[in-house]
């Protein structure tokens, strides 16, 4: 009976993951702005690796200061193996999500002899969590941060039970990697480990004081404890030093502080009450597919007595609440993804609470759980909408494909617009293999773009276009006015036009008139 249910759960898991992979990784739309920026970083390093240029690889690594380089290192390897594409970049996040699910299941087996049941429920909750499913297929840092935090916790629990150097060395490396992933995550993770470790310091100091009267042999456990913590501390400090002291120390420190306290000294983005309830509300609304379920997920974080029933859960509470307190009271900016590193822990704690009460209620458990789960039926359409999103007949990927297909790759092109799903970083990434200059950065300036390009890309948005809400600044309007003036002056002509009515976008390509100077481009 048990084996049959395991196989059913496994089959459902595969079906859900396959659906997620096909709808978002294979057939997903183009990158948003943040995804495009991360993809560009990975693309730099991919080019360096392909050309075996270690000097350029080091330079491109060091210039990633706002978001350190670990994500782009891994992404460059995915580009090497799977090619440069939207799907290859998002495949990395999907693989990270799979590793996170596996680790959640593996961690749960340490809770109790039947901990695999807790793990199965936790994985199920993750597969219905809107925010976890979102970042499972987004080319961003959130998934990597959560995986590193969960892996660090896993090795931390192992270290507490063994006396091997290698586990402590791995733990130090994993915690240190947070610095190379995201400054905010490092700020939240490192204190959590420090607090979890120091919780044992008081009793051990008392024991150490008493050991001074008992001789050297009696002091061995205390010395061993200090030695193990020193291993982790030295490795962690080495990772921090290598990053901050190798180059641009002042700039890296400034960016580190900005990433955490960017609004310190100014007006907070939220009032005191709004700040206090922001993350609890985010857990209710975004970390579960139903607000009703989200309420019980949040409730689990306030039930520490569950920790007395399962091993290692008490440490998990320490990690969760350290991160939440820091995020609520010391980080002025609030966003649901800032605590995403807690998502696997939240799923595990909720699953542990469910089985705790199931054991308490015994025969009544099934009836109680069924009654409590009934309101979830009303939220099932939301869950179905996540796995089976509406697929428009057209999207921005079609627009970019149109641009590429209309122009011979040996001519320089220019574009200047900044939408969430059509931006300078996206243009640079999509045309990375163009055999001529691609000018998309507004810093270059319209005049210089016009002087050095032969073709000019732009779009016009109808009033009902869904992309109207994604316009980030007035760059697109300014670019269209600039091209209209050049056309009126007879300096450019309309080369090609295509309408995408399903998304309210009209894509246009302008070409310099023949009497204008055409840049000479050497063919690669």
UniProtKB/TrEMBL annotation:
<feature type="transmembrane region" description="Helical">
    <location>
        <begin position="230"/>
        <end position="249"/>
    </location>
</feature>
<feature type="domain" description="Glycosyltransferase RgtA/B/C/D-like">
    <location>
        <begin position="68"/>
        <end position="199"/>
    </location>
</feature>
<feature type="transmembrane region" description="Helical">
    <location>
        <begin position="314"/>
        <end position="332"/>
    </location>
</feature>
<dbReference type="InterPro" id="IPR050297">
    <property type="entry name" value="LipidA_mod_glycosyltrf_83"/>
</dbReference>
<feature type="transmembrane region" description="Helical">
    <location>
        <begin position="7"/>
        <end position="27"/>
    </location>
</feature>
<dbReference type="GO" id="GO:0009103">
    <property type="term" value="P:lipopolysaccharide biosynthetic process"/>
</dbReference>
<feature type="transmembrane region" description="Helical">
    <location>
        <begin position="277"/>
        <end position="302"/>
    </location>
</feature>
<protein>
    <recommendedName>
        <fullName>Glycosyltransferase RgtA/B/C/D-like domain-containing protein</fullName>
    </recommendedName>
</protein>
<keyword id="KW-1133">Transmembrane helix</keyword>
<feature type="transmembrane region" description="Helical">
    <location>
        <begin position="338"/>
        <end position="358"/>
    </location>
</feature>
<feature type="transmembrane region" description="Helical">
    <location>
        <begin position="115"/>
        <end position="135"/>
    </location>
</feature>
<keyword id="KW-0812">Transmembrane</keyword>
<dbReference type="InterPro" id="IPR038731">
    <property type="entry name" value="RgtA/B/C-like"/>
</dbReference>
<feature type="transmembrane region" description="Helical">
    <location>
        <begin position="365"/>
        <end position="388"/>
    </location>
</feature>
<keyword id="KW-0808">Transferase</keyword>
<dbReference type="Pfam" id="PF13231">
    <property type="entry name" value="PMT_2"/>
</dbReference>
<feature type="transmembrane region" description="Helical">
    <location>
        <begin position="77"/>
        <end position="103"/>
    </location>
</feature>
<dbReference type="GO" id="GO:0016763">
    <property type="term" value="F:pentosyltransferase activity"/>
</dbReference>
<keyword id="KW-0472">Membrane</keyword>
<keyword id="KW-0328">Glycosyltransferase</keyword>
<feature type="transmembrane region" description="Helical">
    <location>
        <begin position="165"/>
        <end position="183"/>
    </location>
</feature>
<dbReference type="GO" id="GO:0005886">
    <property type="term" value="C:plasma membrane"/>
</dbReference>
<feature type="transmembrane region" description="Helical">
    <location>
        <begin position="141"/>
        <end position="158"/>
    </location>
</feature>
<keyword id="KW-1003">Cell membrane</keyword>
